[in-house]
Amino acid sequence: MFSKFTSILQHAVEALAPSLPLQEDFVYHWKAITHYYIETSDDKAPVTDTNIPSHLEQMLDILTQEEAERESGETGPCMEYLLHHKILETLYTLGKADCPPGMKQQVLTFYTKLLAHIRQPLLPHINVHRPVQKLIRLCGEVLAAPTENEEIQFLCIVCAKLKQDPYLVNFFLENKSKRPEIKSPVATEGGKGNALSPDTGQSLAEKQADHQDEPQAAAAVSTSSPTSNNNSNNYNLVTSLLNLTKSPDGRIVVKACEGLMLLVSLPEPAAAKCLTENTELCELLTDRLVFFYKALPQSMDPLDIETVESVNWGLDVYNLKEDAAVFTGKRALISFLSWLDYCDQLIKEAQKSAAAVMAKAVRERFFVSVMEPQLMQTSEVGILTSTALLNRIIRQVTSEALLQEMVYFLLGEEREPETSATIAQNPLRHRLIEHCDHLSDEISIMTLRLFEQLIQKPNQHILHNLVLRSLEERNYLENKPQEEREPLENGQPHDAVDLEEDPLFGDDLSPERKLSGSDWLSTSPPQSPDHSKSEGKTEVHKIVNSFLCLVPDEAKSSYHVEGTGYDTYLRDAHRQFRDFCGICQRWDWRGNPKPFEKCNLDIPFFEGHFLKVLFDRMGRILDQPYDVNLQVTAVLSKLSLLPHPHLNEYLLDPYINLAPGCRSLFSVIVRVVGDLMLRIHRIPDFTPKLLLVRKRLLGMEPEGITYVLLHDSGSYVLR
Questions:
Q1: In the chain, what are the domain boundaries?
Q2: Lesser CB count within 10 Å: N end or C end of the chain?
Q3: With a threshold of 0.85, does the pTM exceed it?
Q4: What is the DSSP string of 479-496?
């Protein structure tokens, strides 16, 4: 009660007294704080019962006012006094001792406001960055400490200052072998400071308390591993933030994660190296990712995994009762996806070398150690759940470094052409591709969706590993000596079959079945002048018409239902093609195929494991469920949209002369259509039934028909 009365009386005196020059006023408030420690014997009274918070606030106001009254960058006498008399060093000592109780909180607040409000750069001053470094080491020492909020605010303002001037981070990389010297200002600066300013406001006892750390630090270094690198650094700012990510207070965790995000983005190579080698950041990322993944239920509905709302890290607001009512495991799934998003964003923002190290840690400690056994298991329920989760992970990852490591994990790093003997070289890749043709339709569909998602990621290795490496030498083409090759007529061998004259396709095509060259070219992206039509390259409209003519009229239903013709697919394909062109633009794919003369056609052609499974599936399209067929054609459609000359030639050109024993997408479809024609004649009233099934699949007719027709007549034509 007496101390409160004294405080009120002092404020009244200050209000009535004439205003002093800023420096005198500043010194007055600092002396008032130091005199408290000289005159007060009760060190158990909380700091809030003293005038210390008020004096500190006044000192901050004076420093802010002084800077506002001076030209930019000019240091005023009050700031000079603070630096010269090592006031921050003294405050650190008082905060560390927490004398009186609550003083640490006041010191943290003073440091935070000082760095936030003063515009001139303070951290380059040794009498600022040295006590700041010491105060950083006090943060995060105790979990759920009463000063956590002030600690995280202080650490975040330091991170923000380093983001503004990244070179300053070098002041905070503390050399382990020099730490005792850094913490020993008595011999180096203490005497000099006393000579320059007899009254620093720090009593002898406080100075001694400050330097009691020196022997402990020296002992810590001397007892460390003898093999430790003398040039290694402590990154205490990162260490303190990592400690605070373990706080039970979610707001503190988010702030600590934000601070780490700022630090990883600093371009200084020394900081990046220290971050990944001398801190536990990689362990934090991967351990927490593993923890959240293992908290997921063993069995989850793939639809729930696919459709759960996207959650950005830090915005994870939830209601346990509501989440549990939607589906079991929703809360755990959102927590996992939220932390995955943080890892992804952190790696995306990180300095390049640091990003590579963190991404590799995620690959080794999460994908290989945890996910691979889940994907390789034999339980169908486990395979389905883990594949659905992997599909969601692929969809969510956007950072280049993490995507690269994930792709290497899934497909391996091999780039040489596949052979039938090497398809099992990478067990996980082999297993995933085999799952596209699994006995369980659900597993097949989910794995095909995974590959469809993978194909659309902006990573060249995915497409090269899955498809392009098998087509590099164009040895799917017939190999004849140059002198035995037939002369070309209109870009084709003279004896090539003209599919438009084939009796199966006919010349009397309806407008729905035939597309003129001008119509197609008008909807395609403009051709580059550097890539004009080359000799031997089939005209686009002929290719399109060849595919349109494949299915006879009696097996088609699109022209009976308005708005469902091929033109609808064409518009959507055109949009997707433009998207793919944007992704592949930097890969220099546009152009003509590799010159035939430069291809090694003596190598036996193998289409590759991935295309083999897709073609096998496509060949059984008449006997598979509709949903499986939709997914098979979706993957092949995505591959067909890729603007690579060899892929376009192999998948889309029906006029190429295939080497003996080779098949292409067109040849597979021709065989399917041949089988379809035989089946059509065995089904009475085929066309009306086909139309009814189409309308019901589109939701235009009520349910109730038996879907055996899909297997008898072929679901491919219903797409």
A1: 19-138, 236-470, 537-697
A2: N
A3: no
A4: ---GGGSPPEETTEETTS
